[in-house]
Amino acid sequence: MAKALQLVEALIARRSVTPDDAGCQELLKTHLAPLGFDCETLVWGPQTFRVTNLLAIRRGSRPGPTLAFAGHTDVVPTGPLAAWTSDPFVPSHRGGLLYGRGAADMKSSIAAMTVAIEAFVHATPQHAGAIALLITSDEEGPSLDGTVRLVELLKARGEAIDMCIVGEPTSVDTLGDMIKNGRRGTLSAKLRVIGVQGHVAYPQLARNPIHLFAPALAELTATSWDPGNDHFPPTTFQVSNIHAGTGVGNVIPGELVVDFNLRFSTESTAAGLKARVQALLERHGLEFELAWTLGGQPFLTTPGSLTEAVSAAIQAECGHRPVLSTTGGTSDGRFIATICPQVIELGPRNASIHKIDEHVEAADIDRLANIYRGVLERLLT
């Protein structure tokens, strides 16, 4: 499947910094439309942040499940161009590696999906079930007008998806050594602790919000939110930003602003975590304001037909079975899981994602296409 490498190179050459798709999805359509896919381009979002989405569906001639592939054509900014060994939007080969922004996250996966589908449909035109692709240019951005909107559209149309493979780069040391069969939920908050500003020499006339919050912070960081379970590690609490002060050394600040995040397992709920944090802050007698943002609910695909098909395809191509994991950050799988009972993530090695000189092993691109094709053969024939 050398075509997969060629397609990755063509995708890397398109400067699709989020939310710009830069023509990537139109290129994918030239591969999919001749196969009988019904391809819809859906553009959403404000004029200042237009998001391009591709929904493509091909229905087989026999009953069977709908297997979807999902991914994103947008990439993160490059950072300083001078730090790159080669132009990040000119695919370059060195030492068996393919370099370029998006090589690992996640243009290799999208190319491998597309070429795998081409090969499968040519070999099995009367396949069972249906094949779908959900591609967005808003995964690396705010994720407001991408996959979440595609999922809403499918819900409104009554379109069911039975299984989905998201092409996130999940491999650690070698291709296929890990797949994600779930992700933790993410709950963020901005906390404003209110004090009374004053002179540091007259603390009795002020209320220092830093001092007031310190005991609560100690308890928040020491709290065991839940023990986790067989699939998820325990819920974690982390402060990402903390700010107070006027910029001078002789003023007690009047407020403290804290950003924190809870990555939570299925042993906790967003509502329960909110209530516990609120109660803790109140117990410490703080005057505060608290604004929450639920970035995503946790989801889990228990071992079943999809995980087994993926594991068997990896075994056939790579000679090993993958570890199932729910570690790491969030992905668009959190949206798809609301309409799809089985969602997993599988892609190339993730060591260089978002970094200077992002790269993949060139040989892994065709191997990944073989794995995706193996999944199609196991589920839709």
**Number of helices in the DSSP assignment:** 9
In terms of DSSP E residues, the strand content is 25-35%
Report the count of strand segments: 19
Distance between the termini: 20 Å
Largest sheet: 6 strands, mixed
Overall geometric form:
elongated
The helix/strand order is HHEEEEEHEHEEEEEHEEEHEEHEHEEH
Could you tell me the radius of gyration in angstroms?
A: 24 Å
Instruction: Provide the low-confidence segments as ranges.
Output: none
**Helix content class:** 25-40%
Helical/strand content category: alpha+beta
Strand order of the largest sheet: 1-2-6-3-7-18
Mean pLDDT: 97
The gist of it:
30% of the residues lie in helices and 28% in strands. The protein has helices at residues 2-12, 24-32, 103-123, 147-157, 209-222, 270-283, 305-318, 333-336, 362-379; strands at 38-44, 51-59, 62-72, 92-94, 97-99, 128-136, 163-166, 178-180, 182-183, 185-194, 198-199, 236-244, 251-252, 255-264, 288-296, 299-300, 323-325, 342-345, 359-361. The strands form 6 sheets. The chain has a 6-stranded mixed beta sheet, with helices on both faces. Strands 12-14-10-15 form a 4-stranded antiparallel beta sheet. A 3-stranded antiparallel beta sheet has the order 4-5-19.
